[in-house]
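cache lookup: miss for this entity combination. No prior model stored, computing from scratch. Input as submitted by user K.M.:
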Amino acid sequence: MIKDMIPGFELFQPTEIESALELLDRFGEDGWALAGGYDSLDWFKNRGKHPEAVIDLQGLAELNRIVEIPNGIEIGALTTLTEIENNPTIRERFGLLAEAASKVASPQIRNAGTLGGNLCQDARCWYYRYGVSCYRAGGNTCYASAPEALNREHAIFGVNRCVAVTPSDTAVALVALDAEMVIRNSGGERIINAEDFFMEPSSDITRMTVLEPSELLTAIRVPNTWIDADFYFEKVTDRNSWDFALVSIASAIKNSDGQINDARIVCGAVQCIPRRLENVEAMIRGRVQDENTAAQAGALAVQNAEPLNYNHFKIPLMENLVKRAVRG
Amino acid sequence: MSDIDPFEPVQDGSTPSHAVDYSDTVVIVPKAKPEWSRRNFIKGVIASGVTVSGAVYFGPALAPLEPLSAQSVTRLITLNVNGQTRRVDVLPGETLAMTLRYKLGLTGTKLGCDRGECGACTVIISGATHYSCSTLTQRVRDHKITTIEGLESPDGDLHPVQQAFIDELGPQCGFCTPGQVMSAVALLEANPNPTRIEARAAMSGNLCRCGAYDHYLNGVMRAAQESQDG
């Protein structure tokens, strides 16, 4: 049975990034950049988005490569999650990212899904995805924070009207690795820190990232800053495949003789953006890496959490993940 | 569609020339250019073929006929499916599962959820497994596509994975089986001697509502073993 026919659009398959950017310019809000397609096609089939033109990025060879740059590597935004999981350089130097990529969805989705797409995917709140007129969709209410709402997966921190959480596994790893995002439009290039790439709902509730409609995330630069650190990644989900995180954690900790010199700890699925735990990082710096420090880190991490009706469980879950990450 | 001439010129090119409400389906007819040219006429003929053959499903997908400096995709394309070259008329928003099942008659590939959430539509594209329900056909023109129909040898012998799944009683209702087979075949091509854990991971993108996961897994391990022995 044919169902869920995708409404008509024009499909462009540019082979030069300049043509892709020119098309994005030309169509503006009516254009749609297509990478792996798993977020995009769901929107189209559900009639949630109706682009006039879809710009397929698959043919842009320069977005699909991993290159060495001074003090790090640059990963093209179209590199698939499977490639990231299996790339020897990434596995050796940035195991945190390889691990995070390997935990995304299912093998088939990782074979098509790209790093850029994983970072730029839209919120997975099911009220929003259902097509209701919520804040994120430009309306004036949040269905997920209503008293009877099903909000087990939603935020416990940083809520501003919208309670959706960041769905990306690779985002938390890249924030922990101090990565930078390379963004291009037809006018040129800008580079911003991974941490500043994601949009707080208090700044712009209808966008997940700082990308404008005419802009493309073209590459992710991962510096060598943390290559000698101890990494920890864990993603807790209801089922082992396909699922989005209930809480995830990515950490990089540098230590010498059992003493923590520096750390990055980032949690996913607890806030609309990857939540970097700067207060915990500051607290553990200089401390002995032991059970006591880990316990204090966990307690500090969940201070001031504001759970919704059905997601109180995320507080002890996050506390335990922070403990495990700090304990090493 | 009989009372509409989709190629009647309109003076204002900014809106679709006609919109007809068939109770629940709005069929939008392509914009025609005020000036006629040979190029647009030929494009129009291609589009009209679609209106005749697929108007019920594909009516809304007719694209405007405006020339653009960067050209959008053409509909008549060539696919390489199971080693055969197939010419097919494909819309820009058509998924590979639809093309395989409804244009090429390859109904062994199943559509379960149509959202990339079940794995029934798994096919192998250039060596890697993909959900064909979530792959635009226009993106796989230059790839080798293998479906469940392409596994059997010309003399009718089953692929070792198919035979092993039968021997291990993999299928119960059988709806997820083609997808399970494709995932197992791709795994064994990349890694002929997987551990049970590796096999489990490779099969983790295919749901089985009968819950025959262990049977399938036994089948994968048996196929690997028998390929080694053979």
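stored under new cache key. Residues 5 and 29 of chain B are 9 Å apart (CA to CA).
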